[in-house]
């Protein structure tokens, strides 16, 4: 078992699933009512479960066996379908797309952004919320390597059309960058 898997399994051992981010919930009208969705490093599935309940075909990927077990149990309890994939994203990469929606909350592995964007379907949305270095003004964690610099999340979005971008202190007293980006559809209607 990797150190990362061990650490996250311990964290989720006594955890509850939790509620989806108000930021994601606030995007309900922008999100498609159907299609494929990916929750990147989604832990116990608070976002994946919300997306699945809305009608999306969701895959939750995380390194933690315990987090994924919690998510599957909650999906059964709610009577919704949820696919899970246990993988270390830093060494194994992403599950195969194309994704109509991909969400990434409070997980930063910079080399993952280009393949994540490439895995979006034409017109697909990427929704991210990641703490910034300004978060260190009030909190010791997460440490600097897991924080984006000012404006960095928008740069990591590459060629995506930025639908919304903001950096501010948010609901739980974290300073976060929030991004909604859309992959453009090819002009001829075919993905290349």
Describe this structure in words.
By secondary structure, the chain is of the alpha/beta class. Helices cover 27% and strands 27% of the residues. Strands 3-2-1-4-5-7-6 form a seven-stranded mixed β-sheet. A hairpin with a 5-residue loop joins strand 6 (161-169) and strand 7. The longest helix is centred in the middle third of the chain and has 14 residues, at 65-78.
Quick take:
This protein is α/β, with parallel strands linked by helices and about 190 residues long.
Topology at a glance:
Elements lengths: L2 H10 L9 H4 L10 E5 L5 H8 L3 E6 L2 H14 L4 E4 L2 H4 L6 E7 L7 H6 L1 E12 L20 H5 L4 E9 L5 E8 L10
Parallel strand pairs: 1-2, 1-4, 2-3, 4-5
Antiparallel strand pairs: 5-7, 6-7
Helix pairs in contact: 1-4, 3-4
């Amino acid at each position: 078992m990797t150190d990362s898997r061990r650490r996250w399994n311990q964290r989720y051992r006594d955890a509850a699933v939790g509620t989806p981010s108000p930021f994601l919930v606030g995007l309900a009208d922008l999100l498609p009512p159907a299609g494929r969705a990916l929750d990147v490093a989604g832990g116990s599935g608070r976002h994946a479960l919300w997306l699945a309940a809305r009608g999306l075909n969701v895959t939750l990927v995380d390194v933690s066996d315990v987090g994924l077990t919690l998510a599957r149990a909650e999906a059964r309890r709610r009577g919704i379908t949820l696919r899970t994939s246990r993988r270390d994203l830093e060494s194994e990469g992403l599950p195969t797309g194309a994704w109509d929606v991909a969400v990434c909350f409070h997980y930063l592995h910079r080399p993952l952004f280009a393949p994540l964007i490439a895995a979006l379907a034409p017109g697909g949305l990427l929704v991210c919320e990641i703490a910034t270095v300004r978060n260190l003004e009030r909190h010791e964690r997460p440490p600097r390597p897991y924080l984006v610099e000012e404006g960095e999340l928008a740069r990591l979005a590459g060629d995506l059309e930025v639908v919304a971008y903001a950096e501010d202190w948010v609901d739980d007293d974290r300073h976060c960058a929030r991004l909604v980006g859309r992959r453009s559809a090819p002009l001829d209607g075919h993905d290349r």
